[in-house]
C-alpha cells in the first residue's frame, strides 16, 4: 500500500470509532455512500451500517474501503491524492514492501515480462515503487530520488510513460543508490542506449505490457 493508503487504513484500524473515521475519509474524498458501495460491489446500506457502528470492519474490509476511495479519486483526476502527496513525491504513484523475498524470475513470469538485457536475474526483491517518469522529471530533485527506495534498495522500480527509456536510466546513474531491477510499463520503443546504461549499472531491465492496475493486482499477493 502507498503511504496515503497506510495512513487512512491505520487511522480507521486504531480509531475508537472506526465508523466515524470511515465517514470522515469518505467525505474527504467527496464520495457518497452509493459511490463507495458501487466501487466495492456491496449495498449502500452496508456502508451505512459500518459508519453508524452497527458493524465492525475487519482488516480486509478496511483495505477494500481504502483502495476503493483511492481508485474513485484517481478516476476523478486524483485531486485528493495530490493534496496529501508531499512535495517531491508527485512522481511516485505507489510503493510497498513485500512480506517475504520475491524471486525476480517468478515476478517476471507473473507480469508476462521480457528482459531486454543479459544481466543475470537470479536475485531477490523486497519491495516495489511505481513511478510516473514525466512527473518525476518535472517535480523531483536529486535527493528526492532517495525516497523511491522505501525500506530497501533491493526492489523493482516500475516506470510508466516511457518512450525510449533514457531518462529513467540517466536518473538512476546519477543517483547514489541503485535498484535491483528496473521495469518499463507499456513502453514505446526502448533504445539501445537505455539497455547499455542498464548493463553498465548491472541492472536487469524488464518491460511489461500490463497496465499499472494490472501490475498492482498481480503483486498484491506478495504484500505485507
Structure description:
This protein is an alpha/beta fold and 224 residues long. The protein has 2 domains: 3-83, lambda repressor-like DNA-binding domains (434 Repressor (Amino-terminal Domain), Orthogonal Bundle), CATH 1.10.260; 92-222, Udp-n-acetylmuramoylalanyl-d-glutamate--2,6- Diaminopimelate Ligase, Chain: A, domain 1, CATH 3.40.1390. The chain is 46% helix and 17% strand. The protein has 11 helices and 6 strands. It has helices at 3-14, 18-28, 33-40, 44-51, 59-75, 79-83, 104-110, 133-139, 166-174, 192-201, 212-219, and strands at 92-103, 114-115, 124-132, 155-160, 181-185, 205-208. Strands 1-3-4-5-6-2 form a 6-stranded mixed sheet. Helix 1 (3-14) crosses helix 5 (59-75) and helix 3 packs across helix 5 (59-75). It is elongated, with a radius of gyration of 19 Å.
Q: Which terms would index this structure?
A:
224 residues; alpha/beta; Udp-n-acetylmuramoylalanyl-d-glutamate--2,6- Diaminopimelate Ligase, Chain: A, domain 1; 2 domains; six-stranded mixed sheet; 11 helices; 17% strand; elongated
**CATH homology superfamily of the largest domain:** HprK N-terminal domain-like
Helix/strand/pairing class, anyone? alpha/beta
Determine the number of helices (DSSP H or I, runs of at least 4 residues). 11
Distance between the termini: 9 Å
Number of strands: 6
**Order of helix and strand elements from N to C terminus:** HHHHHHEHEEHEHEHEH
CATH class of the largest domain: Alpha Beta
How many domains would you count in the coordinates? 2
Strand content: 15-25%
Unreliable runs = none
Radius of gyration: 19 Å
- CATH architecture assignment of the largest domain: 3-Layer(aba) Sandwich
The shape is elongated
**Helix content range:** 40-55%
Tell me the strand order in the biggest sheet. 1-3-4-5-6-2
